[in-house]
């Protein structure tokens, strides 16, 4: 779930300005392969990522928040003057301990494909943050600051929803990374 926290302040400059900040962190869970166990079995057993009854070997969670400031004219009209949008993301990946040379080599290939798939999710989050910031700055002047706030948040939430849907399409279109090589048959 994406958290949304608009913050509104008065009295900023007359020229609208934007700022997008990004933060990406990696988190790992450990995987140990027991004798006779397949790489897929070991990953599925060790994975901490479970959703809707399914086990995943990697996951990217991103969150976009935005703040904006406005200026109110003497007649009550209000326009946005500054926005700051933040993207924070966390990619969770497996880290292998043990296994034979063939398993370690296969894991390295698999991990590379997993990472690339997860970075695709992150890029969708980056696009969401940039598009939200642009939408905020394009918010038209309003007859009142409360109306400006409502319009700005509606615009930002609509952009966010489009990118959440884009992320679902990305997983569907890639088979959750399968078409990108993030798949273990054994």
UniProtKB/TrEMBL annotation:
Bias (Basic and acidic residues) ranges: 163-176
Superkingdom classification of source: Bacteria
Alphabetical keyword list: Signal
Pfam families to which the protein is assigned, alphabetical: DUF922
Signal is among the record's keywords: yes
Signal sequence range: 1-18
Keyword field contains Cell membrane: no
Positions of the UniProt region annotated as Disordered: 163-186
Protein name: DUF922 domain-containing protein
Species of the source: Ectopseudomonas khazarica
């Amino acid at each position: 779930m994406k958290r949304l926290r608009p913050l509104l302040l008065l009295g900023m400059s007359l020229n609208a300005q934007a700022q997008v900040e990004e933060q990406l962190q990696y988190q790992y869970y450990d995987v140990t392969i027991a004798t006779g166990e397949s790489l897929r079995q070991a990953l599925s057993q060790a994975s901490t990522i479970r959703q809707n009854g399914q086990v995943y070997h990697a996951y990217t969670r991103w969150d976009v928040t935005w703040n904006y400031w406005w200026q109110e004219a003497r007649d009550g009209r209000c326009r946005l003057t500054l926005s700051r949008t933040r993207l924070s993301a966390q990619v969770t990946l497996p880290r292998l301990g043990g296994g034979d040379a063939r398993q370690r080599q296969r894991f390295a290939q698999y991990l590379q494909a997993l990472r690339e798939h997860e970075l695709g999710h992150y890029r969708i989050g980056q696009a969401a943050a940039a598009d939200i910031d642009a939408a905020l700055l394009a918010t038209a002047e309003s007859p009142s600051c409360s109306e400006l706030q409502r319009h700005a948040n509606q615009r930002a939430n609509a952009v966010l929803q489009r990118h959440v849907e884009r992320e679902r399409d990305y997983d569907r279109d890639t088979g959750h990374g399968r078409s990108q090589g993030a798949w273990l048959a054994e």
